[in-house]
Amino acid sequence: MVGKFELMVKIYPQGKLSQHMDAMGVGDTLNFKHIPFNVKTQYPFGKQKLGMFVGGTGITPMLQALHAVLGTPGDTTVVSMLYGSRTEADVLGKETLDGWCASHGHRLKVAHVLSHEPEGSAWRGERGFINKDLIAKYMPAPSDDCILFVCGPPPMYNALCGPRDQKELTGLLADMGYAAAQVYKF
Asked: Which has the closest alpha carbon to 131: 145, 146, 111?
């Protein structure tokens, strides 16, 4: 066997597949199937600025993209990410993202937005939901040299860009002047 294959799996209390995978031992096997029509775009992305909107487990395709962007010598793409989670404990891949921000800080900025973090917690970052003000603050402005990736739960798609299966761009991103050709819904 050549190389390796890593998965990030969130274990849900009632999730049959995640519970099964969590119970697997070293040497156990699991079959996977590639879904060709699910590929939205491939690296290199051809733009200097990449904005990522993430909700919960939607971080997984973004980590793949970041591996490509940050791991390719000579790539100068600047990445901005708005990552929505319920609480700080719900943020998947935080250690990986923090490490990448530390080593690629000039090219990667991540802003976490927590919707249900307790008021008395030590959290000092953004609270609530991804909105127009946060997009203006953290994301690249609409231009020919930027693309946006969106991956999260249906309410996030609806608010930002319209349902995942809808080709037309609606929501906050359309209102702010981004074009449908700039937005990839994962």
From this structure: 111
CATH number of 38-185: 3.40.50.80
Q: What angle do CA 81, 152, 138 make, to 5 degrees?
A: 20
Report the alpha-carbon distance of residue 92 to residue 9 in Å, rounded: 9
Question: Judging by DSSP bridges, how do beta strands 108-114 and 78-85 pair with one another?
Answer: parallel
Please state the pTM of the whole predicted model. Answer: 0.87
DSSP secondary structure letters along 86-132: SSGGG-TTHHHHHHHHHHSTTTEEEEEEESS--TTSS--SEES---H
Domain locations in the chain as residue ranges:
38-185
Q: Is residue 57 marked as binding? A: no
Give CA–CA dist 155/99, Å, rounded: 29
94 marked ligand binding residue: no
Write down the pLDDT at residue 6: 74
pLDDT of 38: 61
Q: Is 10 annotated as a binding residue?
A: yes
| Residues making up the chain, counted from first to last | 186
71-91 confidence digits (pLDDT tens): 999 999 999 999 999 999 999
Per-residue pLDDT tens over the stretch 104-144: 989 999 999 999 999 999 999 999 999 999 999 999 999 99
To the question of whether residue 60 is assigned a binding role by annotation, the answer is yes
pLDDT at 35: 66
